[in-house]
Design brief:
alpha/beta; TIM Barrel; 3-stranded antiparallel β-sheet; 13 helices; 14 strands; binds pyridoxal-5'-phosphate; binds iron/sulfur cluster
């Protein structure tokens, strides 16, 4: 017998009638859209999208969860969900300075899965699988490019050498599990990793980088959160880019994580034509606060081969930040950063107008100036 459910994104009035359990994440994963015919059930595919999908064959992976596809605008090819998930012909234009790995993950890798770029923290790339292959992925070479992988041997290779590396480096206090998307692994597999990490006394915090709350929120089950709870402190950073991605299902996933003591923060990427607009960005940030997600980073888009067309200028990013800082809740405002071969570099607003002999002149968010004289003893 099949269960028939009327589900989808009620916020946008898109309903998909399915004869399988919409709340079962493994079903979404198994039923990911990977063919044109399948995609056509959700949207009116444009000729450009169609040729980009054909051109991608053998070059770039693409897959979309039925959930994420249900958020797509059927008619509008500029829909932010479509732009993030459906291949475009622009991916095949190469630009100057673009590189498959401009941030230097390979330069800093110290083992099969570990990238050690900052002294006190590492990332562990545990899988190259994702529920949706985001067209703008910074690790496009690693996740989406069919020729590319950072895994020296295989993804299923023993973790023990990686754990030993952490064990032998007392300075590592923060381990970030990422990929690909680590939540693609089963709870059992993830628990093994967490348990082993927790046997290393100097590992203080463990964090996940996962886009599942956005791309397949059904993955965040009560059982999963109860498992995480045993290994606290666990943090999770996710990746919402557009207000349309904040739905009842994603809010429910976030609520489960928070209820089980996992703080959730957001890392957006500034993407041309998707969120490079003050009003859209503000709405995204405000809606994140409504579901109790703390905006953490706004990444300047990296010049990754196949991704460059999503880049804005840094001035665009700074203008958006100028429209946010002081104009809205302090903790609605992420840090705007650019990832480089030398690490993440903040791109702050310049608030110092002048360094004079007597002190500094600062300006506030309305460009109102304040002078701050240097401290001098009053009577001497
Ligand atoms: C982003 C990143 C981290 C974590 O950086 P935070 O600024 O602490 O969030 C760690 N290692 C690598 C290689 C990274 O790219
Ligand atoms: S989920 Fe994350 S790692 Fe996977 S394709 Fe999207 S941005 Fe890249």
């Amino acid at each position: 017998m099949t269960v028939c459910k009327e589900k989808g994104n009620e916020l946008h009035g898109i309903y998909e009638s399915v004869d399988w359990d919409w709340d079962d994440w493994s079903q979404h994963f198994r039923r990911r859209i990977q063919t044109l015919d399948e995609l056509k059930k959700y949207i009116d595919v444009t000729p450009d999208e169609e040729s980009a999908i054909q051109k991608s064959a053998g070059i770039y992976k693409w897959a979309v969860t039925p959930y994420y596809a249900s958020l797509m605008d059927k008619e509008d090819p500029n829909c932010p969900i479509r732009r993030q998930a459906i291949p475009s012909l622009e991916e095949f234009t190469t630009y100057n300075y673009s590189d498959v790995d401009p941030v230097g993950d390979t330069k800093y890798r110290v083992g099969n899965r570990i990238v050690h770029k900052y002294a006190d923290r590492i990332i562990m790339l545990i899988t190259e699988q994702c529920p949706v292959y985001c067209r703008h992925c910074t690790r496009k070479f690693h996740t989406t490019n069919l020729n590319g992988t950072y895994f020296e041997s295989s993804e299923s290779e023993s973790y023990e050498p990686d754990f030993l590396y952490i064990e032998n480096h007392q300075e590592i206090r923060d381990v970030l599990l990422t990929g690909g998307d680590p939540l693609t692994y089963s709870d059992t597999k993830l628990e093994k990793i967490l348990k082993r990490l927790r046997s290393i006394p100097h590992v203080e915090i463990i964090r996940f980088g996962s886009r599942y709350p956005v791309l397949l929120p059904q993955r965040i089950t009560k059982e999963f959160c109860e498992m995480l709870e045993k290994y606290h402190p666990i943090w999770l950073n996710t990746h919402f880019n557009h207000p349309k991605e904040i739905t009842k299902d994603s809010a429910k996933a976030i609520n489960l994580l928070l209820t089980h003591g996992v703080p959730v923060q957001n890392q957006s990427v500034l993407l041309k034509g998707i969120n490079d607009d003050l009003e859209i960005m503000k709405k995204l940030l405000h809606n994140l606060l409504k579901i109790r997600v703390r905006p953490y980073y706004l990444y300047h888009c990296d010049n990754v081969t196949g991704v460059s067309h999503f880049m804005t200028t840094i001035d665009t990013g700074l203008d958006i930040m100028k429209g946010l800082v002081g104009h809205t809740t302090g903790f609605a405002t992420p840090s705007y950063v650019i990832t480089t071969i030398n690490g993440k570099i903040p791109l702050p607003l310049n608030t110092v107008v002048e360094y004079s002999e007597d002190g500094l002149i600062l300006k506030n968010y309305q460009d109102k100036e304040t002078s701050l004289p240097y401290l001098t003893p009053k009577d001497s």
